[in-house]
Amino acid sequence: MKQRKIIHIDMDAFYASVEQRDRPELRGLPVAVGHDGPRGVVATASYEARPFGVHSAVSSVLARRRCPELIFVPPRFEVYKAVSQQIRSLLLEYTPLVEPLSLDEAFLDVTTERSATLVAREIKRRIRMETELTASAGISVNKMLAKIASDYRKPDGLFTIPPRQVLSFVSELPIERFFGIGEVTAAKMHRLGIHTGADLRQWEEAELVRQFGKAGHAYYGYGRGIDLREVIPDRIRKSLGAETTFTLDTDDPKQLLLELEAVRREVWSRLLRHEFRGRTVVLKLKFDDFRQITRSRSLSEPVDSYSTLSRISDELLASVDFHGRKIRLLGLTIGNATGAGTNCGQMRFDFGQGSR
Ligand code: DCP
Ligand code: MG
Q1: pLDDT band at 277 (very low <50, low <70, confident <90, very high)
Q2: Which ligand has an atom closest to residue 55 CA?
Q3: Is 172 a catalytic residue?
Q4: Which of 241, 262, 307, 356 would bridge 333 by S-S if both were Cys, CB 3.0 to 4.6 A apart?
């Protein structure tokens, strides 16, 4: 079986970070999102509040007692949802295999990419740039390990468990940290003397099944770092793209064409890998004053050759008036997806000239 590459992305102190982003006066202070008062509960706390023992699910009364300076902020779910959507579409630019677990976390299957760690780094960078929030990323060969890894260097963390370290990693891992082993199961395992992955490995598969039912098969695998759960996407890709931020802002036409060429090749290679079909080419430029513009062109048929993509994107770039500004970021996206099945069998990618 092919070795998979899975990324787990989890936003840091999600609700609280959004509040600190939107209300700068809260930055650096202990913040709890939730309602103050006798029946209130903390949804989440900023990292400044956590050392006091203020966490998700702690009652507001207890939280206040533990941290008298604590600032309560009422939740704004519509805003968190919108940010979540924004992050979701960003993730979908990298692979259609995105499985959201909640508003602030998702799995990605990036097996087709050369380096999952590089993709994760790039995703973290883009989340920071586009939402001004930080995320932590975990990278490994399956969901269980990727999920554990994203927790390892929080906040703003990135942690990879490479294939050769999987066994030693799970050996020492307390079983309550395994993704897929809940509180009740963990308590039962403790009673049976199973405390780490290494302990779990001492058990025969049939014996685990006798104790835990069908789940015993999965637990047998977990102890060996094996987790066959797949990343199940919840929606269909709408667009696909790539972008680059320059080391130095530029308005040199030659360099811009080179940068466009590099981004375009990346877009084209993603398009081929995902067999994506879209009719609209969108060029995005960010200027040195941080203003952003997009220029787009829609075709009657999906973009089916690299030369078409080249011609249209070159023309889009040529059509922009810089007004004396320099460019700091250039992105290219293909959108307006052709619905699945509508073009079956008719679509032919041109693998000839220019498509590397
Ligand atoms: N949440 C909630 N009640 C809980 C747990 C979470 O309302 N009992 C909400 C608030 C969190 C969001 O879900 O911001 C994401 O949950 P996480 O467990 O990922 O916690 P955070 O993102 O807040 O912190 P961390 O940095 O530990 O991921
Ligand atoms: Mg989180």
Answers
A1: confident
A2: 1
A3: no
A4: 241
